[in-house]
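Record type: ASSEMBLY
Status: queued
Input:
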Amino acid sequence: MEEKQGVLFGKTLRQLESEVFELGLPRYTATQITDWLYKKDVTSIDEMSNLSKEAREKLSERYEMGLSEPVKVQVSVDGTKKYLYRAHNGKFIETAYIPERDRHTLCVSSQVGCKMGCLFCFTAKQGFQGNLNAGEILNQIWSLPERQLITNIVYMGMGEPFDNMEAVMQSLEILTAEYGLAISPRRITVSTIGIIPAIKTFLELSSCHLAVSLHSPFEEERRRIMPIEHVYSLTQVLEAIRSFPLGKQRRISFEYIVFKDLNHSPRHVKELARILNGIRCRINLLRFHPVPGTPLKAPDEKTLQEFKTALEKKGLTTTIRKSRGQDIYAACGLLSTKEQQPR
Amino acid sequence: MKTLKKSTIISNLETAPGAYILSFPRSFDFVPGQVIGIAMNPEEKPRLYSIASGNKEQVIRILYTIKPGGKLTPGLARLQAGDSIFVSEPFGGFICGEEPAFWVATGTGIAPFASMFYSGVSNNKVLIQGNRFASGLYFREDFEKGMGNRYFPSCTREEVEGLYYGRVLKFLSEKETLDPGLKYYLCGSAEMVVDVRDLLIERGVPFENVVAEIFF
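Status: finished
Output:
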């Protein structure tokens, strides 16, 4: 049997128009397909009942749907669930579903492993094992048992989204387009460690929120925990953000993991106030949950609260992110790392 | 990204199967360890490469391998002397000081260390270079001549006389002592960087003494 050339799920309307043209099908078939892919719950091409028989046959010869169920789930005592999906290369990725009273957030992965090598990150220990395609990013949402409950999507799972820009932008188009899932871009946040050319493209082409991993306002210190600082400095990242008119709706947040005795002194408060001056933003403080082999430690709760208060006194809007799913390591890549290991 | 400027290729030679050294005239100053963006036309998004030549040389060299399906490297490998490329100004902060240090590199991660070596800052450095095959130990002859017994080449897929057989991680783990006061500069795959950094930290090297560069 001839090997199928690709998957349908994750293709944009424009890509599908080009595909149906190649197959000699009418152009409107592309709109019909997006309707079946992104509006209705079908799992096979055969179920696309308003397509002609010829169209379904031609599509089936070339394509698979590209949907896959999660292969494993871990459930935390606080209701957080971590799903494991298999990627096209046989490796595994994680997706965290974080339910709250009036907000249900899904944290999606964009790569298998990561190249960025941040000192505090467990996903980094897998190294880099491949990019996800747009369909695999979207499948984490579409195949989630709680899909109907999701209110917010954050690209903060495994991988650096802006190191897989094409697939991430494609997935964002499908998530927000009328022909796609039609989710408001205000409910989607993409997080980056600060890849400047991609930040510029993202700010120009998307209306979704942006989160930047900051973790230290001092370049030398940031460099020790985040190698990206060698290539794109925080100063340049902030310049790039400042140079773009953000509008009132769009939110920029800075993620800041607080490490014991490292990045929460009055000096850090003063410098954060200085470098973020003039950017309408929020600082999101994260509790550090130490991962094996990391020399960094978490501060006590009092230190965290004092740091938050000190930042607020400088006029910086600051929140502390609630820790969720600690018993299942919801944020660290541990499940997929274990699954990746040979048995 | 900085503005791209047109440059004319001096040479583009295959130095090992699938690995090329591209040379063009130097039109800017740089610090060894810095990177430049390269594109085949000015509208393209440039890809970043570490400079592999010395900062007093009149040419800039970069080392690259062909990425199957890649957007730049298959085309780049077809270019010849006289063809044009577009190059950004140098930037980046993977910079090594005068102090004694270990340099650990795999694959094309050797490029920033080659630049440091050709710029004359290798006198008190130890270089550990790894690759799967001996042919991928780029600049090996020069390192052997210039660094002597401070140079440790290694291979993981073939046993060759004079080369350590195994990963750079294994080589380092077999060392009885690793001076925690030294700086350790790492450049290579994410996996190597993270594994070696973990080993160094486990062996008592403070994380601030481990300086890692990443490729992406």
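Annotation: The first helix of chain B runs from residue 73 to 76.
Annotation: Chain B has a mean pLDDT of 95.
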